[in-house]
Amino acid sequence: MRIAVASGKGGTGKTTVATNLALHHMRQGRKVAFVDCDVEEPNAHLFLKPEMDDGTEVHMPVPVFDDDACLGEECRKCVELCRFKALIWMAGSVMPFTEMCHGCGLCKLACPADAISEGTRAVGHAYRGQLPGLTFHKGLMRIGEAMAPPLIRELKERATEDASNADIVLLDCPPGASCPVVQSLENVDFAVLVTEPTPFGLHDLGIAVKLLRKLDIPFGAVINRDGMGIDAHAHLRENGIDLLGTVPHSIEAAETYSRGEMLYDASPELEQAFTAIAERIESKAGGAV
Fold first, then answer.
1. Which residues have C-beta within 8 Å of that of residue 276, sequence separation ≥ 6?
2. Alpha carbons 104 and 144: distance in angstroms, whole number
3. What is the C-alpha to C-alpha distance for residues 218 and 185, in angstroms, rounded to an integer?
4. Are 94 and 70 in contact (CB under 8 A)?
5. What is the pLDDT of residues 1-41, one digit of tens each?
6. Pair 184, 193: CB distance under 8 Å
7. 28, 88, 105, 260: least surrounded by Cβ within 10 Å?
């Protein structure tokens, strides 16, 4: 069972919920594969504290042009078909902007002169870590890199290799609703949307809800820091969003988070809050968790 933990914006407590759910399942004797898909700013390892390896470099395919074989201005099919504007015709040749390339390979397929071959460029590093009962994956993008999806795809493929030995795969998604989030949500069975009781938090929750409904992924919401601001419960009811549970607002929770410690161990109240969320997810996801 693949469970994604996502949010409409950063800072809502998505990683807090994902890591504490992982700890809950580990304490229940289940084997967990955890994927930190937020490759621009991974931080789940700070809380779970797995033993990490040295990482391996991850590459993505990019086109390489043979100017002698290229048919030149009379063709330009590759330039016309590239929907990401990664190719332009300039000064009598095709100029690639590989930082904008999505590696789809359409230009190579469309070239009538077989003038395009496949090269690679590095996008970042992938790391694997271990704890008793948990396999951990995280990625870290190269500085200046804009293409997160290839690195996220690599992390998910690695997690798939571990999935045969795991009872549950937890994916900590990037914030927002853009391409990296869509890549993270691909092939998940259920999604947990974490929100906060603020106008900004509930507004961006609506964006994430629209994305999940468009992708036809079943989901529910968790209210983090419940009791801090406006009535998020009413907002969920009015918008037909199922409530999976709440994490109560408290100074104790904030201090525990600031120390990089797990809320699950901070107090019986917080342990019960995450236990209730995990049981609600299990119920909504069909009891397969």
1. 245
2. 21
3. 11
4. yes
5. 899 999 999 999 999 999 999 999 999 999 999 999 999 99
6. no
7. 260
pLDDT digits (tens, 9 = 90+) for 227-240: 998 999 999 999 99
Amino acid at 152: I
Q: DSSP for 233-252, please give it.
A: HHHHHHTTPPEEEEEE--HH
The whole-angstrom separation of Cα 14 and Cα 284 is 19
- Tokens 């989030």: give the residue: 181
Is the Cα torsion angle 94, 98, 100, 101 positive or negative in sign? positive
Q: Whole-model pTM?
A: 0.91
Question: Please, are residues 14 and 204 in contact by the beta-carbon 8 Å criterion?
Answer: no
Cβ(85)–Cβ(100) under 8 Å? yes
Distance, CA of 93 to CA of 70 (rounded, Å): 8
Q: With contact defined as beta carbons under 8 Å apart, do 201 and 12 qualify?
A: yes
97 close to 87: Cβ distance less than 8 angstroms: yes
